[in-house]
Specification:
Structural class of chain A: alpha/beta
CATH architecture of chain B: Orthogonal Bundle
Number of helices of chain B: 11
Low-confidence stretches of chain A: 1-6, 11-40
Number of helices of chain A: 17
CATH class of the largest domain in chain A: Alpha Beta
Order of helices and strands of chain A: HEHEHEHEEEEHHEHHHHHEHEEEHHHEHH
CATH topology of the largest domain in chain A: D-Maltodextrin-Binding Protein, domain 2
Number of strands of chain B: 0
Number of strands of chain A: 13
CATH class of chain B: Mainly Alpha
Oligomer: heterodimer
CATH topology of chain B: MetI-like fold
Mean pLDDT of chain B: 90
Helix content of chain B: over 70%
Largest interface: A-B, 46 and 42 residues
Order of helices and strands of chain B: HHHHHHHHHHH
Number of domains of chain A: 2
Strand content of chain B: under 5%
CATH superfamily of chain B: MetI-like
CATH architecture of the largest domain in chain A: 3-Layer(aba) Sandwich
Helix content of chain A: 40-55%
Shape of chain A: globular
Distance between the termini of chain A: 71 Å
Distance between the termini of chain B: 39 Å
CATH superfamily of the largest domain in chain A: Periplasmic binding protein-like II
Largest sheet of chain B: none
Mean pLDDT of chain A: 88
Radius of gyration of chain B: 23 Å
């Protein structure tokens, strides 16, 4: 009898544990992220014309490129192979897999084996530049990237690889279908108008028209950094705002951009599709919701395109960005323009690389900017928005195209705030608390102030 | 003659192991201790000696102490539940029930899955599966993701860790139970000991060596938890489930305060070493020979 009971208990326990493990299979992902049957359409590259002057003495040189932009790993390898065909220089593209790019590059330096070139975030370049990087101030491409260069004490140490922008992504077809009338993104010019527009969608049957990511990098970096970047819409302005906050001369509670930002964030919060459980929102599902028409808006940047494409969006669909409306003044630039600035930078090692390796790396960077093939591959193969004036190619996906057009029409402001590396994580947590309704404005503002007070 | 061959044996068998141990454990450890006394940021070529100021930063880091407090809470839950469950299940699985080998293998399986993978699987279960069960049945317990509420997220962490660690401990306890001498058990039964009395006065003292190992393993693993913490909650919601090891990593690599991070790692090591040491000393004292 006892033995039977023991058997029953064991069976029950293991069934509970095993079934808990297996239930995952019953609720599959709506879209399989790694579908092997998926056909990736790639635009053909015309390699017939190439007027770039290669340095024959560099043939046989081997250099390395550390890539922290996972989605362009394959594209970079193709680019490297194409460059090798022409120049004879071999480029090994190493992906950053499990670490942060900074941690990876620092550990490579400490093990005495740094990559010749590294693709890093702007903050990382600033942290490493003077200690490790080669001075690129005299490179020819400097003239093409005017306005998008990052300077450390007056010197340029990195090539801006791409422009990235963010704002409120809309799905035009879904909006028009819901409202039964044509939608003109330009018709919304203030926060009040945006709020009314959301109301119209709700009245037309879309219960909550907007997706809001709960991730700390989204809340702490992409949302909150508007308070610095909209100071005057330039990177210098953002730096000035931060310095004033640090020095205590700009009071958080009375700084108008903070209150405007929170007004705007509240509007997004109230229309959030996951209003009931905002911290349970699932990032993959947001792309599916927007593509399928459950929502009409998603706050994000052009890097969200692969997710949208996976969720079924096509290059021909009409997606685009609305500005992050901060107030009700239609003449304020924040209500007219979206944020777009260089994000990833290529840094060149100046400490361990030999002169020949450095020369090969410099040639590769120039090849990317000046050769007909490099220009095409940067846009078509890597699907990046190039910050170089001389690059005539336009990106293919609707989000990048929208940013590209806005940059060229002057409807984008180029401001990126350089904040300490843990800003997104520390203040992302504070923003999550606010998003979940577990803290109020005052507490959030106090935590921002406290964060800056603690910085040296 | 004898001592000479001993020296040769030592060189042949112990030296390679000792060399590896020194190279990958001792040298990094003492180098790490040295780094806590410098202002090195991981990049610069010069390391300035700054005395104990990094430890001063540790004392002032409120977040570290609250994550340490949370870790203590987590350790208590995990150690108690894992050992109680593993002991109970191992007891059931050594009584000759049908298919007990199958159950032993089944319980051990979660231990074969890496912590990161395990965390992601359970993240999916908590935030998607449970929520869909909640929305189709209307159970308020599963209405919102467990990972979006601080106390439920903590419970989720404990649950997953228990699920992962129990299997291993079951294995050790099963080995312990199998090693119990039949003669002693039989003698106890003849003397009239049964049920609880037998468990308390005969089985428990004989099982103490297994208890020592299991307590030590669960204690040290729970104190140093990082992988499950990272992949299941990553400290969310709003940093309320950030354990000490994760805080140390964040301090060093996200906030880029290598000195302070390294000093916090040392503090965490000392605390874990002390507590595990005391535990081993206390439980060892209770071990008996059959």
């Amino acid at each position: 009898m006892k033995r039977k009971m023991a058997s029953c208990i064991s069976l029950g326990l293991s069934l509970a544990l095993v079934s808990a493990g297996l239930t995952g299979c019953r609720f599959g992902f709506a879209s399989d992220p790694d579908d092997p049957n998926e056909q990736v359409t790639e635009e053909p590259i015309d390699t017939s014309v190439d007027s770039f002057q290669y340095d024959g003495s560099l043939q046989g040189t081997k250099i390395t490129l550390l890539n922290s932009k996972a989605e362009i790993q394959v594209a970079l390898e193709k680019m490297g192979a194409e460059y090798e065909k022409k120049s004879g220089v071999h480029i090994d593209v190493m992906p950053v897999t499990d670490d942060s790019p900074y941690t990876r590059v620092v550990s490579l330096y400490n093990s005495g084996n740094p990559p010749t070139m590294s693709i890093l975030d702007t903050t990382d370049v600033i942290a490493l530049a003077e200690e490790k990087a080669a001075d690129l101030s005299q490179e020819p491409w400097i003239a093409e990237a005017e306005g998008y260069l990052t300077k450390v004490n007056g010197k340029v140490y990195s090539l801006p690889l791409c422009i990235e922008g963010r704002g409120i992504i809309y799905n035009k077809a879904v909006i028009e279908e819901t409202l039964g009338e044509p939608f003109d993104p330009q018709s919304i010019t203030t926060l009040k108008e945006f709020q009314d527009f959301l109301g119209k969608l709700v009245d037309a049957g879309m219960e909550r028209p907007l997706s809001l990511a709960k991730e700390d990098w989204s809340l702490g970096a992409h949302h909150l950094q508007y308070i610095y970047e909209t100071y005057d819409g330039t990177s210098e302005g953002a730096r000035e705002a931060i310095e004033q906050i640090k020095a205590g001369t700009l009071d958080m509670a009375s700084y108008n951009r903070v209150n405007e930002f929170l007004d705007a964030f509240d509007v997004l919060k109230q229309n959030n599709v996951s209003l009931k459980d905002p911290l349970g929102a699932d990032y993959d599902e947001m792309a599916i919701d927007l593509a399928d028409g459950k929502t009409a808006f998603w706050f994000n940047g052009n890097w969200a395109w692969p997710n949208l494409a996976e969720a079924g969006a096509e290059n021909e669909d009409e997606y685009g960005f609305l500005p992050y409306f901060l107030n009700n003044d239609p003449d304020d630039f924040v209500n007219q323009q979206i944020q777009g600035s260089p994000s990833k930078q290529v840094m060149l090692d100046g400490q361990m690389a030999t002169d020949k390796e450095q020369a090969a790396a410099r040639e590769f960077l120039n090849w990317m900017v000046y050769s007909e093939i490099g220009q095409q591959m940067l846009v078509k193969t890597c699907n990046l928005i190039p910050p170089f004036k001389n690059n005539p190619y336009e990106p293919a996906d609707p989000l990048s195209r929208d940013i590209y057009e806005k940059v060229h029409e002057g409807k984008a402001f180029n401001a990126s705030a350089i904040v300490p590396n843990d800003h997104w994580s520390v203040l992302g947590a504070a923003m999550q608390k606010y998003l979940a309704g577990r803290s109020d404005r005052q507490e959030l503002i106090e935590s921002i102030q406290k964060y800056w007070d603690e910085q040296e | 003659m004898k001592s000479q061959s001993n020296g040769k044996d030592f060189c042949m068998f112990a030296l390679p192991g000792l060399f590896c141990f020194v190279a990958v454990m001792m040298v990094p450890f003492f180098y790490g201790v040295y780094l806590t006394l410098t202002d090195w940021n991981g990049v610069s070529r010069v390391k300035n000696f700054v005395g104990l100021s990094n430890f001063g930063a540790v004392v002032k880091d409120i977040q570290f102490w609250s994550s340490l407090l949370l870790t203590f809470k987590y350790v208590i839950f995990v150690v108690v539940i894992v050992n109680a469950m593993a002991f109970g299940i191992a007891y059931l699985l050594t009584r000759g029930i049908k298919g007990q080998n199958f159950f032993r293998a089944g319980f051990f399986t979660p231990n074969l899955i890496g912590g990161i993978v395990l965390g992601y699987i359970w993240q999916f279960v908590f935030s998607r599966v449970f929520v869909s069960i909640g929305s189709s049945t209307g159970w308020s317990l599963f209405e919102a993701s467990w990972l979006s509420d601080p106390s439920k997220a903590f419970a989720a962490l404990v649950m997953v860790s228990v699920w992962q660690l129990s299997g291993y401990m079951i294995l050790i306890y099963v080995a312990g139970f199998m090693g119990l001498s039949e003669d002693v058990m039989e003698a106890a039964s003849i003397d009239g000991a049964s049920g609880w009395v037998k468990m308390r006065h005969i089985i428990m003292p004989l099982m103490m060596s297994s208890v020592t190992i299991c307590l030590f393993l669960t204690l040290s693993r729970a104190f140093m938890v990082y992988d499950v913490n990272l992949s299941l909650t990553a400290g969310a919601p709003y940093g309320t489930t950030e354990m000490a090891a994760m805080h140390v990593y964040e301090k060093a690599f996200t906030s880029r305060q290598f000195g302070a991070g390294q000093a916090e790692a040392l503090v965490l090591f000392l605390i874990t070493a002390c507590i595990s040491g005391i535990q081993v000393y206390l439980t060892k004292k209770k071990e008996v020979e059959a």
